[in-house]
From TrEMBL:
Its EC number is 1.15.1.1. It comes from the Eukaryota. This is superoxide dismutase. Residues 115-199 form the Manganese/iron superoxide dismutase N-terminal domain. Pfam families: Sod_Fe_C, Sod_Fe_N. PANTHER family: SUPEROXIDE DISMUTASE (PTHR42769), SUPEROXIDE DISMUTASE [FE] 3, CHLOROPLASTIC (PTHR42769:SF10). It is found in: Plastid, Chloroplast. Residues 210-307 form the Manganese/iron superoxide dismutase C-terminal domain. The keyword Ion transport does not apply. Coiled coil: none annotated. InterPro entries: Mn/Fe_SOD (IPR001189), Mn/Fe_SOD_C (IPR019832), Mn/Fe_SOD_N (IPR019831), Mn/Fe_SOD_N_sf (IPR036324), SOD_C_sf (IPR036314). Belongs to the iron/manganese superoxide dismutase family. Keywords: Chloroplast, Metal-binding, Oxidoreductase, Plastid.
Length: 328
């Protein structure tokens, strides 16, 4: 490719360009002290490198030549080209968790979504009669989808958090208890994906093997655990979630409640299953009877198969018992 370099100055600036202090951003963004660069491709134009003072400008696909006419072209033999900036590899940074930047970047109109909507791992009528198809259509098709669309809208306005996996995004956006604007929608998307996978057609009954032994060890019996889970769900004030989690430090299982969108992964707990206690999760099928809703979940919907797979995976990170001494 051939390259041309343009610049546009917002305020008088006599500070010399120093190429020794650079900061890289997402393969597109380079800041040099008070100068910012961004590499982009334009429709019907070859690749360009644009330089601005104090504020980065991204040319979106479809930009006309007339918009570029106001910029002054720097000859290709300028000192910028001598420093080989046009061919320099741009690496992604590690973003700080406790602080967010405001890059002022805009994405092209061709990008319409950052995260996609995941379907439940079963048909929407597969949980009937315990959870109706109408509830799934409303809960997944409207509420879950709405949180995802709101999250993507947040990221389209400021993409500093773009590129994380969903669980990483939730942890970063929580920001040590001072959440960013993206947190509620990101956490609700993650919570709902986890909730759908916590159920299965023909679920309920009781867990088997190691998970059952761990429940009996930490709660006394499976019956005691079941009653504890239903009680926590029935007495939750307002909207929120009930979880069976594995506490990393304590190396034990606990039933925990979270309010609104908060999820236990922000505390480094390992969730094994959850129950959505927002009103729209149960009002169509059970009105305001939260106790019956939680009881039906435990007896007919919960997927102990998935919960067992989750605790087996967690054992790679948490030592749940005494070390086994090999027999010669």
């Amino acid at each position: 490719h051939s390259y041309s370099v343009t610049y546009k100055r917002r305020t008088p600036c006599t500070k010399p360009l120093d190429l020794t202090h650079t900061h890289f951003r997402k393969n597109l963004f380079v800041a040099v002290e008070n100068w910012k660069f961004c590499a982009c491709s334009t429709f019907a134009l070859h690749s360009c490198l644009h330089l601005t003072c104090w504020k980065a400008v991204v040319l979106e696909p479809g930009i006309g030549i007339s918009k570029m006419a106001s910029c002054t072209t720097i000859p290709i033999s300028s000192p910028l080209h001598a420093n080989d900036l046009s061919q320099r590899m741009i690496n992604s940074p590690t973003l700080p968790l406790q602080k967010r930047g405001h890059l002022g970047l805009k994405r092209g109109p061709g990008i319409v979504a950052y995260y996609g909507l995941r379907k439940p791992p079963y048909d929407l009528d597969a949980l009937e009669p315990y959870m109706s198809k109408k509830t799934l259509e409303c809960h997944w098709g409207e509420y879950h989808r709405g949180h995802l669309e709101a999250l993507n809208k947040h990221l389209s306005r400021n993409d500093v958090l773009y590129g994380y996996t969903m669980d990483e995004l939730v942890k970063v956006a929580y920001n040590y208890g001072n959440p960013f604007a993206e947190f509620n929608d990101a956490a609700q998307v993650w919570n709902h994906d986890f909730f759908w996978e916590s159920m299965q057609p023909g679920g309920g009954d009781s867990p088997q093997l190691g998970l059952l032994k761990q429940i009996e060890k930490d709660f006394g019996s499976f019956t005691d655990f079941r009653e504890k889970f239903i009680e926590e769900a029935s007495t939750l004030f307002g909207s929120g979630w009930v979880w069976l989690v594995l506490k990393r430090k304590e190396k034990r299982l606990e039933v925990v409640k979270t309010l609104n969108a908060v999820t236990p992964i922000v505390w480094d707990d390992i969730p094994l299953l959850c129950l959505d206690m927002w009103e729209h999760a149960y009002c169509l099928d059970y009105q305001d009877d939260k106790a019956t809703y939680a009881t039906v979940f435990m007896d007919h919907l919960v997927s102990w198969h998935v919960a067992t797979l989750r605790i087996l995976r967690a054992q790679a990170f948490v030592n749940l018992g005494e070390p086994k001494i090999p027999v010669a």
